[in-house]
Amino acid sequence: xxxxxxxxxxxxxxxxxxxxxxxxxxxxxxxxxxxxxxxxxxxxxxxxxxxxxxxxxxxxxxxxxxxxxxxxxxxxxxxxxxxxxxxxxxxxxxxxxxxxxxxxxxxxxxxxxxxxxxxxxxxxxxxxxxxxxxxxxxxxxxxxxxxxxxxxxxxxxxxxxxxx
Length: 164
Fold this sequence. Notes:
With 164 residues, the protein is an all-alpha fold. The protein has a domain of 84 residues. The chain contains six helices and no strands. The protein is elongated.
């Protein structure tokens, strides 16, 4: 800004004291200080606004670059995927179909019957069977760990010893 030394400020102060007078000098100095502060704040606001605009412009340019790069990558991936799909389809259509004699006699009725049997067996396995029925017919009452099963079926371990 303006290069004002101590001697220049003293000369300006003496001239202002002579021209303005000692009664009005404090008011004028206060007004000059407030105007100088306002000017500095205005300049700082302008500087920050300009820097914000520059950063915003840089971000927009960066966004455009990233977007073009993403579009090119997307196009490359789509092209390679379409080529690979075409290769797979060509390979699929070029291979001869092999008819196995074990599969050829299976009908949809057989498949539906097997599916019904599987669902029925699964329902029997997973359904809620009462505990008294399981106990009477030897079904599992609860889940036991591998160590518990080994201890239960170990020969000669009729005594129930515990660690505790």
